[in-house]
Task: inverse folding
């Protein structure tokens, strides 16, 4: 049994450490997702604004975020900007800022698309009832857009969760980093199977986080269909 | 002689180079039903959309209750609460129940009390025969039922004027009647209405005045019995002829 090397997972406090790493991953992912969702709605409204300069600005923002690797944004904020402006931001704060910056742009584009897909007549029916722009969004456009953006929105959240794996590169100890540390230590003990077991477990942990999110979205979709 | 509720003079509307309404004038008195007919693309739907500010206008004036609502600085939200509009494609809000649809305007735009608004909404549903469907969602209704709810939704704002934009045009034939009946009943109760329609028999029955539009101008304006019996213009005659069919069996050569 010893030769299978599965014990690497249970050695010492490895499980607890992995759990702590997972908690860091989840904290970053879900904080960013929450910020992205809320700010993304406003970004989406700004992207469909009638004021053209605002639309152009939002376009620039979206394109910038899309063509820049997230890793570059992480490095930029963590290693240069925060040093230049004498900010002492923790790696976790930097990660949440960068992922929210990225997620807001993507969520904004999804929200813009969802609002644009609502027939013009819905807007006009609301106007004809004497409703103002804010009421139009609050009672007619956003509730309908929410149903339409759900699949793409959930997809974004799972992408956020997966992309948080990059945070180890700015020194944050997330679940993946903990796994690597465990593997390094195990290799000293000549356990050649350690990477397999550790990564398999990490795979399962990511699945355990992402799957409920997907499940929740399916629930909501079914509920809204009725 | 009381002042007209709606008084339009010299109304012009252009889309870029294309002039859709070319200096159009009309008056509607309180309690009057004006029916607007004409070939597709003659500008009759655009006319309705200009009256409640869904389209900007390039010339002329639109007086409603004596005030020029086409002038700059018009509070369209306030005006639209007094002008109800029903569209061809009904456009109920799909995420709300029938009752929710009808009460949205009164609750949010007019800030009325829930109890009072609901009582009126239910009374309206009773009138159009759909009270038992008040908790249904729009997709559970037939086209005719949806359009009746859309009318009730506009009526619940207690408008002074109702605009109907080809409200039966996308309905199956057997559902047209139930919608027209609701409108006839409204006319009987003295609601002021401007109706754009292709239903000529209905137009004749409901109208106090008929306007025949073509090419962005009013070609003919007459009492319904005059217009439908003896149109005074060639264009009017031609238009009415498109609704008449000569039976073929008189001319058919049947080989024996």
Result:
């Amino acid at each position: 049994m010893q030769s299978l090397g599965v014990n690497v997972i249970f050695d010492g406090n490895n499980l607890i450490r992995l759990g702590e790493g997972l908690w860091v991953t989840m904290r970053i992912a879900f904080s960013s997702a929450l910020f992205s969702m809320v700010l993304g709605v406003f970004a989406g409204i700004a992207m469909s604004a009638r004021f053209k300069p605002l639309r152009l600005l939002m376009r620039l923002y979206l394109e910038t975020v899309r063509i820049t690797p997230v890793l570059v944004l992480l490095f930029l904020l963590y290693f240069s900007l925060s040093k230049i402006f004498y900010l002492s931001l923790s790696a976790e704060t930097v990660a949440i800022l960068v992922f929210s910056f990225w997620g807001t742009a993507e969520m904004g584009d999804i929200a813009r698309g969802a609002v644009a897909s609502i027939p013009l007549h819905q807007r006009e029916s609301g106007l004809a009832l004497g409703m103002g722009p804010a009421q139009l969004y609050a009672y007619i456009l956003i509730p309908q857009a929410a149903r339409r953006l759900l699949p793409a929105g959930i997809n974004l959240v799972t992408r956020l969760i997966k992309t948080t794996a990059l945070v180890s590169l700015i020194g944050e100890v997330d679940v993946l980093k903990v796994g690597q540390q465990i593997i390094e230590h195990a290799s000293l003990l000549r356990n050649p199977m350690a990477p397999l077991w550790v990564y398999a477990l990490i795979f399962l942990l990511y699945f355990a986080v992402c799957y409920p999110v997907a499940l929740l979205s399916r629930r909501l979709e079914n509920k809204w269909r009725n | 002689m009381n002042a007209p509720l709606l008084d339009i003079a010299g109304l012009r509307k252009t889309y870029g180079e294309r002039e859709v309404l070319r200096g159009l004038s009309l008056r509607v008195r309180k309690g009057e039903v004006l029916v607007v007919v004409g070939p597709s693309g003659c500008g009759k739907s655009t006319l309705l959309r200009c009256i409640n500010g869904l389209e900007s206008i390039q010339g002329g004036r639109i007086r409603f209750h004596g005030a020029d609502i086409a002038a700059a600085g018009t509070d369209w939200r306030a005006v639209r609460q007094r002008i109800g509009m029903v569209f061809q494609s009904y456009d109920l809000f799909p995420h709300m129940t029938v009752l929710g649809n009808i009460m949205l305007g009164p609750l949010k735009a007019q800030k009325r009390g829930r109890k009072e608004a609901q009582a009126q909404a239910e009374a309206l549903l009773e009138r159009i025969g759909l009270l038992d469907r008040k908790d249904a969602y729009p997709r559970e209704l037939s086209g005719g039922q949806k359009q009746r709810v859309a009318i009730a939704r506009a009526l619940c704002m207690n408008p002074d004027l109702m605009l109907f934009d080809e409200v039966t045009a996308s309905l199956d034939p057997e559902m047209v009647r139930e919608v027209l009946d609701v409108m006839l009943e409204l006319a009987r109760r003295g609601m002021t209405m401007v109706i754009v329609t292709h239903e000529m028999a209905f137009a004749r029955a409901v109208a106090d005045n008929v306007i025949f539009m073509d090419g962005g101008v009013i070609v003919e304006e007459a009492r319904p019995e005059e217009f439908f019996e003896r149109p005074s213009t060639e264009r009017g005659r031609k238009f009415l002829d498109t609704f008449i069919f000569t039976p073929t069996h008189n001319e058919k050569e049947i080989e024996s």
Q: What stands out?
A: Chain A touches chain B through 19 residues (CB under 8 Å).
